[in-house]
Amino acid sequence: MVDFDVQTFIVFLVFMLSLGICHADRNLYSGLQCSEADNSSESSFGVNLDSLLDLLTQKGPLSKGFFKTTVGRSSGKIYGLMQCRGDVSAENCANCTRESVAVALHDCSKSKKVQVWFTWCFLRYSNERFFGVWDQSSAAIVNETDFDDASVVSKALTFISEVSITAPKQPLMFHAAVLDAGQFGKRYGMAQCTRDISRTDCSHCLDTQLMTFRTTIGNKRGWEVYGSSCSMWYHDY
């Protein structure tokens, strides 16, 4: 289920967690947002978009999984960013970026503002500059029936809070950690911000996500929160 806060604008997120089944980490399509704008009347935008996506695909995986750039001038100008999760290999980053581009071109071919989320990467482009601007928009993916044991729940929020505090201080603004839940196994948490925003904004972004979705995610065994400027993951696999 996708839980929307009043500030969110992500219009489509798909629940990808299989009920009661654990999977090794793999790249899954998580969501998409397309604007209503039509670029069909501006041929320069389409040409610039092709150039932008080529640059993001080529340079992102080779730049520690993050690359942003601008292509074009005046009305045809377009800003783009891609980022892979901090623990993903360059090869997997490249594959994920290509998948994101394919989704964007197929499902948002007439849009000027697009965001695509996969487990391993994030693609965003727009005809309006967004670099360095913290965007509070976010949405949560949870399994409404997969509740965790009460003894684990009491530790989980403290654990993920510590992960979110640590992430902004890291070189890639990404942090992953493991919670030992004793007889209930392990829980894995991750937090990451897009590297165009400041460390201060990264902290604010993750804090806001935790506050916004605290009730939604608090007693769940697995959840993901995806945003335009930061994301968090918590699972038992």
Task: Describe the protein.
The protein is of the alpha+beta class and 237 residues long. It has helices at residues 43-59, 90-107, 150-166, 199-217; strands at residues 2-4, 12-13, 29-34, 66-71, 78-84, 113-118, 121-126, 138-142, 174-180, 186-193, 223-227, 230-235. The strands form 2 sheets. The protein has a 6-stranded antiparallel beta sheet, with helices on one face. It has a 6-stranded antiparallel beta sheet with strand order 2-3-6-7-5-4, covered by helices on one side. The protein is elongated and about 60 Å long. The two termini are 19 Å apart. One of its GO terms (cellular component) is extracellular region. Residues 27-130, 134-237 form the Gnk2-homologous domain. Keywords: Repeat, Secreted, Signal. InterPro entries: CRR_secretory_protein (IPR050581), GNK2 (IPR002902), GNK2_sf (IPR038408).
List keywords for this structure.
single chain, 237 residues, alpha+beta, Killer Toxin P4, Chain A, 2 domains, six-stranded antiparallel sheet, 4 helices, 28% strand, elongated, disordered N terminus, GNK2, secreted, signal
Q: What would a concise description of this structure say?
A:
This protein is of the alpha+beta class. The protein has helices spanning 43-59, 90-107, 150-166, 199-217; strands spanning 2-4, 12-13, 29-34, 66-71, 78-84, 113-118, 121-126, 138-142, 174-180, 186-193, 223-227, 230-235. The protein folds into 2 domains: 2-8 and 135-235, Gnk2 domain, C-X8-C-X2-C motif (Killer Toxin P4, Chain A, 2-Layer Sandwich), CATH 3.30.430; 35-126, Gnk2 domain, C-X8-C-X2-C motif (Killer Toxin P4, Chain A), CATH 3.30.430.
